[in-house]
């Protein structure tokens, strides 16, 4: 069996690493990897391939820094050529980025099967580019690998039973990755020590367009984090886009801002922080994997089970809501023994199902 994996953005490297590791166990499957280049910054791309032992991409499309239309269009053009040449049995796409959409669309139009990992998620906010990508990719896929029961229910509500698309509850490959790499970094040199980070700290990440493209939202979040940092340190590994916008608007956070970190460093930060504040999809879940409460700096989340079970508080960018949620963290005692994302073998389930087709 031939699999063509299309990745291009930071969270996709984490997810694809888990599945690639599983694929390697099967001598009857070969995988080729296309890196679209969507995240081209070395700190957000190269480092992942190096440290996570993801096979080097067979194709590097180098497409980045464009409007969504130009980016998706150029990806489609190049992916068409690659898919025609490689003739894969499956094109494997992850999550909800432009690379996901381009990979799925190109494959579907050329009559190749698409398998979507992290399918069925919905934030119900059509202003998010990610939501549009999720809906379109699910609909043109051959197989949908859903991380949660909620994702399966979303698809049922949208009438997917009538579409003849194979739906599998696989569990979450990010959980596989977190378990595997947390074990791998045990005993390794400490990033926190190297940076001189001591004591309690909040781990923050901000990069969603809905926050970075609206300066009033971004400055409200920064102001809230400034105030919180008077009680305990706040560490923000900053996304290049967020850095650029803060600089352009002359906003200087009073807390600790560091360059984007590799996944291993991120795991150490997650394991040692007191809580997480983020607008990232993946980081919300990773907070839960490491038994940390999360404040989500968005108006909604596609990971609703985190809300329903009290692990997560949604605040959007509102200063009062963020600071109130921070003050309330101590009062909440969610039960982290509840298992929401499978047993850590989602990748095994995915590969087993691909082989069945
Ligand atoms: N991440 C990382 N370094 C950072 C910030 C995030 O390794 O400086 C990891 C994070 O742990 C998660 C993934 O990147 O595994 C999530 O990426 P991101 O927040 O960019 O995307 P989203 O999940 O929102 O799509």
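Q: What amino acid sequence fits the structure above?
A:
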């Amino acid at each position: 069996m031939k699999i063509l994996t299309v990745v291009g953005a930071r969270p996709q490297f984490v997810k694809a690493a888990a599945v690639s590791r599983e694929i390697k166990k099967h001598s009857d499957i070969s995988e080729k990897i296309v890196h679209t280049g969507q995240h081209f910054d070395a700190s957000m791309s190269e480092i992942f391939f190096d440290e996570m032992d993801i096979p080097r991409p067979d194709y590097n499309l180098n497409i980045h820094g464009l409007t969504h239309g130009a980016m998706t269009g150029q990806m489609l053009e190049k992916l068409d050529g690659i898919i025609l040449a490689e003739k894969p049995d499956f094109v494997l796409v992850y999550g909800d980025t432009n690379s996901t959409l381009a990979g799925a669309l190109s494959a579907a139009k050329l009559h190749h099967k698409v398998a979507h990992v992290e399918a069925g998620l919905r934030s119900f906010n059509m202003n998010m580019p990610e939501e549009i990508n999720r809906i379109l990719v699910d609909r043109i896929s051959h197989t949908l690998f859903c991380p949660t029961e909620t994702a399966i229910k979303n698809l049922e509500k949208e009438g997917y039973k009538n579409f003849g698309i194979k739906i599998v509850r696989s569990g979450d490959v990010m959980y596989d990755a977190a378990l595997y790499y947390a074990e791998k970094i045990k005993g390794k040199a400490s990033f926190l020590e190297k940076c001189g980070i001591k004591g309690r700290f909040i781990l923050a990440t901000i990069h969603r367009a809905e926050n970075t493209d609206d300066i009033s939202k971004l400055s409200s979040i920064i102001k809230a984090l400034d105030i919180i940092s008077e009680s305990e340190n706040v560490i923000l590994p900053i996304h290049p886009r967020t850095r650029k916008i803060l600089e352009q608007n002359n906003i200087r956070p009073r807390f600790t801002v560091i360059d984007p970190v590799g996944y291993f460093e991120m795991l150490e930060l997650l394991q040692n922080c007191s809580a997480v504040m983020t607008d990232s999809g993946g980081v919300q879940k990773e907070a839960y994997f490491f038994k940390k409460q999360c404040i989500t700096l968005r108006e909604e989340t596609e990971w609703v089970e985190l809300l329903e079970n009290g692990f997560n508080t949604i605040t959007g960018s509102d200063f009062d809501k963020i600071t109130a949620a921070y003050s309330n963290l101590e009062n909440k005692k969610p039960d982290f023994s509840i298992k929401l994302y499978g047993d850590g073998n989602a990748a095994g389930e995915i590969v087993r199902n691909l082989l069945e087709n």
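Q: And what stands out in the fold?
A: Residues 10-11, 14, 205, 207, 237, 260-263, 266, 280-283, 286 surround uridine-5'-diphosphate (CB under 6 Å).
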